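Now for my pick.
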Amino acid sequence: MRGSKKLMRTILMMAIALMATRCSSVRTSPVVHNVNLTVKKGETFQLVGNSFVIDSLILNDGAGIYLDKSHKKTVIRINYLQFGHDCFIAGVGYSGYSEPVRSSNGVYFGVIGHSGTAGIDLLLHCSVIAPGGNLLINLNGGSGAPGGSPGTDMMRVASNPLTRNATATTTSFRVPLQSVTRLPTFNDYPRTTNGEGGRGGDLLMTIPASYDKDFKRAITISNEGGFGAHENPDKRNQAAAGSVKVIPTKE
């Protein structure tokens, strides 16, 4: 009798622990453990999630890993890393897009350029890195998209009878339309904007101390800020680059 009660209590505790694990996985991103991943020559692999513990990651020539862009930060712990030639790990921000601005009755006002998004922040721990090959870690920010001024389209607005004494609405602002008794000027309407570039992602990487001499030869880091859009390419603003910190650790 006592044995059966003890067994039932053990089963109950296991069920509670299982339920707690399932509930916690809903609130936080699950950690992927004990994965052995090999990416074939010239192929790519898309990670899903933002926290990984990988036993071995082998990238053959031209192979690459894409980080999950739905997360701003990714943590990867790799016990054994091996890469061939021209391999990459990429967490680049999205580029902006150009969006036409129209009134509720379809009158065109111009184009808004949306900004690019930041590159992904990456915390990468590597216990062992095999010699040979070269790897690019790309966390660049996305570029901004160009906007466009209404320009001569204001004449079409004034001549359109549907715009008389009306008010047009867009997703981002409210535009008062003037009566056709006066031709609208550029200042009567919001100035469309060019998109800004996204910031570069931060990289914190730990490597085995024995690999420190090979690091600069084998691994290239690019986490520059994206460029904003401008009519004159020479006047484009570039967003801030991310930080880089590489820490050699004792094996």
The first strand starts at residue 32 and ends at 39. The chain has a mean pLDDT of 75. The chain has one domain: 31-249. Residues 146 and 210 are 47 Å apart (CA to CA).
